[in-house]
Design goal:
mainly beta; Leucine-rich repeat, LRR (right-handed beta-alpha superhelix); 7-stranded mixed beta sheet; 2 helices; elongated
């Protein structure tokens, strides 16, 4: 059923589509709407501010993708935000999520190049924000780092276990510190980090998703702490997509392991492998910990 130029479900509980070019810069979603449908505000460049009613429970996939929103007012009552809900909203600078939200999928704000903070209102039992970065409330998962955050360096807090899929995509920092509590780095975890020049992967990491450095083309130093290389075969090169062919990168491996890495499938393409001394407190090898490296559609 249509109300003016806006398409709703028959019961007005789902907002399906707001056609671009037909509304003003400030848009208020009618009371009673419970779902902002997939692609509902897609490419509505003229809309700069959106106000959602307290009846909204879910913002669906790519609901605001490519829109011109600078701000969005989200009321208490929202429960779910689906993947890429605010993707490519290039003028969005801050995003404040209500205490009621209990389910946030990865990469809700990918491509929001001006976004400097994802804030969560106090009282939320599922999520929190630390200096504008989105975490689960227990601090064990770092969910999303805003692409417009201007810091030149970032230290992931101790206690984080999981780096979510696309967490640091297109981040601006040049260096990042990963604590030895991290065990999982998700799919495309550091995709498109064009300023990133060096990174150390601690031995605690036992599960790496594909493309975790995809399009991070300026990395010159990759240091790993495993005393045995991952048993990477050619089809596992997806893990290092973006590093293949980088003639300036140096792979630093623990003393005594260079020949193992040179002979291991998936590592031998690094043109310059050098050894370094691990600290005496180094953790067990990746072989002892049972590393898993994922490729598209499989776990190896």
């Amino acid at each position: 059923m249509e109300n003016g130029a806006t398409l709703y479900s028959a019961d007005y509980k789902t907002l399906f589509k707001v056609p671009g070019g037909t509304v003003s810069a400030n848009y208020t979603v009618r009371n009673g709407v419970e779902v902002i449908g997939a692609n509902a505000f897609e490419n509505c460049k003229e809309i700069k501010a959106v106000s959602l009613p307290a009846t909204v429970r879910m913002i669906d996939y790519t609901a605001f993708i490519g829109s011109g929103i600078v701000s969005i007012a989200i009321q208490e009552g929202l429960l779910n935000i689906r993947e890429r809900a605010f993707a490519a909203c290039k003028d969005l600078e801050t995003l404040t999520l209500p205490a009621s939200v209990t389910d946030i999928e990865p990469h809700i704000a990918g491509g929001c190049s001006k976004l400097t903070a994802i804030n969560v209102k106090s009282g939320n039992t599922a999520y929190k924000s630390i200096d504008g970065v989105l975490f689960t409330a227990d601090g064990k998962t770092i969910q999303e780092y805003p692409e417009g955050k201007p810091d030149a360096a970032y230290s992931i807090p101790e206690g984080v276990i999981r780096i979510e899929d696309w967490c640091f995509s297109n981040s601006k920092f040049a260096t990042v510190e990963i604590p030895n509590t991290v065990t999982h780095i998700g799919y495309d975890g550091f995709n498109g980090c064009s300023n990133l020049t060096e990174v150390t992967v601690p031995v605690s990491v036992s599960d790496i998703g594909p493309f975790f450095f995809s399009d991070s083309k300026n990395i010159t130093s990759l240091k790993v702490e495993w005393s045995n290389p991952n048993q990477v075969t050619v089809n596992r090169l997806l893990t290092f997509s973006g590093l293949v062919g980088n003639k300036n990168i140096v792979l630093y491996v623990p003393t005594g392991t260079k020949s193992l890495y040179q002979a291991a499938d998936g590592w031998e393409f690094f043109p310059d492998i050098r050894e370094y001394n691990l600290p005496s407190t180094a953790l067990p090898s990746i072989a002892d910990m049972g590393v898993t490296i994922h490729t598209a559609g499989s776990t190896l």
